[in-house]
TrEMBL record:
Family matches, as InterPro entries: HotDog_dom_sf, PAAI_dom, Thioestr_dom
Name of this chain's protein: Uncharacterized domain 1-containing protein
Record-linked Pfam families: 4HBT
GO molecular-function terms, A-Z: 1,4-dihydroxy-2-naphthoyl-CoA thioesterase activity
GO cellular component, one term: cytosol
NCBIfam families associated with the record: unchar_dom_1
């Protein structure tokens, strides 16, 4: 599969998630290594009005979505893969007035479960805001509204 195909699949997947549209999430990059989404800074995601710090829920949504959509980078066909488990370890707060990027990769694919890991960062991926690991259940490819 080409990187353009991965990018298009990721964009189509993201476009149907209403809460992600509200947050303004967009696909930054998609290739065989994984997926990067962008969460733009806005007043709507501020958790602490005194500091302008981003609410942890917005970062959690970014990372759950990034891990979930990263499955399109490794699967030959689109499959519905709901979250089974997600763990996020926050390293430090996100800085105000800066976008946040989420990167995730699928490091193991089994017939029933996909294992992912990633990071949330702002300027430098070497200084992550958070680390994430997630597992996603494979329900099978969907054809004309049916799951096989």
């Amino acid at each position: 599969m080409s990187d353009n195909s991965r990018l298009e699949r990721a964009q189509r997947f993201l476009a149907v998630l209403r809460h992600c549209q509200v947050l303004g999430l967009s696909v930054h990059a998609a290739d065989e290594k994984g997926l990067t989404l962008r969460l733009p800074y806005s007043e709507a995601i501020v958790g602490n009005p005194e500091t302008g710090g981003i609410h942890g829920g917005a970062i959690t949504t970014l990372m759950d979505t990034t891990c979930g959509i990263s499955t399109v980078c490794v699967l030959p066909q689109f499959e519905i893969c709901p979250t089974l488990d997600l763990r996020i370890d926050y390293m430090h707060p996100a800085e105000p007035n800066k976008d946040v990027y989420g990167f995730a990769e699928c490091y193991r694919v089994t017939p029933n479960v996909i294992f992912t890991r990633g990071i949330a960062y702002q300027d430098d991926p070497e200084q992550p805001i958070a680390h994430v690991v997630g597992t996603f259940m494979r329900l099978g490819k969907t054809v004309a509204g049916e799951t096989r």
